[in-house]
């Protein structure tokens, strides 16, 4: 899978832009604040219908304009796709081969990308919210049903929290409504957790192998899902999980009513990483934490290929300069001759010379590309 052509209209600092890409490695070089990352962001939005940098879509539209359009031609093993994302104050419109998609979940997954930016190096030691986002973005690309179940769960959490905040004693009608929300919370929450467990078991298989390669077989990486309530993770049977979830909700009912919020569920779950059975978040060196993050990102590439039979496009936003030569070499070896890669950098110094020889280099200055 690769991006053949990208067209931007009123996107960030690009009023009109047409680019054709190399099928292998494309490097965007320029000083900071010139528009390099905007190119990668546009490709990300084209794939996932949202930005990795902001939740405010108006920020994506060029100042003084009322709309923005991103168009791309994507080549897969089977066919060519024309994708289009329109952004206005009224919302988003997504099209595949000029046909508007009724739901974004019908659109996402047609084109797959993996973004690796400096902030991803904090995936291991950052907040649980960041790790949950990592799971949701990557699973959503290969499982439309996951996106649907997650969106339903998020709506239920919002409604349930509103009810819990307004709850006072002896309100029978509200108690009955809470029990209905509980049933739906369990139904969709169990499906979300189940899919996350399935994804992580496959991700861990690849991450273990990659991590061992980077560390000359001296370190063994393990990934563990940390649910927000005691949960038997020996299997991923949804019904069994639902039963455990329901029992736990009943036990903490008074706590939730007192605090006015939902205390358990996949919106509070986390991931745990260990190297040689030692907690990486708490006791790992910065090098080990970075190697773990890199192993996860490279494992995603192989997992997506396993799931859909296509390699995703890799977006490296100023990340090579953050990696030492050994980790950089491992990354290049993993993507070599099979993954189209977009790289932003302020300088090509420090980038593997063989990588440069095989690359198309675009120079970016104040929104102009040569």
What can you see in these coordinates?
The chain is an alpha/beta fold. It is 44% helix and 23% strand. The chain has 11 helices and 15 strands. The protein has helices at 36-48, 104-107, 128-142, 144-165, 172-214, 238-251, 253-259, 280-283, 286-308, 325-335, 353-357, and strands spanning 2-11, 14-20, 25-29, 67-75, 80-88, 91-96, 99-100, 113-116, 221-226, 270-275, 278-279, 313-317, 341-345, 359-365, 368-369. The strands form 3 sheets. It has a 6-stranded antiparallel β-sheet with strand order 2-1-4-5-6-7, with helices on one face. It has a 6-stranded mixed β-sheet with strand order 8-12-13-3-14-15, with helices on both faces. The mean pLDDT is 91.
**Mind describing the biggest β-sheet?**
6 strands, antiparallel
Radius of gyration: 22 Å
| Beta strand count | 15
- Please mark out the parts with pLDDT under 50 across 5 or more consecutive residues, or reply none: none
Total helical segments:
11
Class by alpha and beta content: alpha/beta
**CA-based shape:** globular
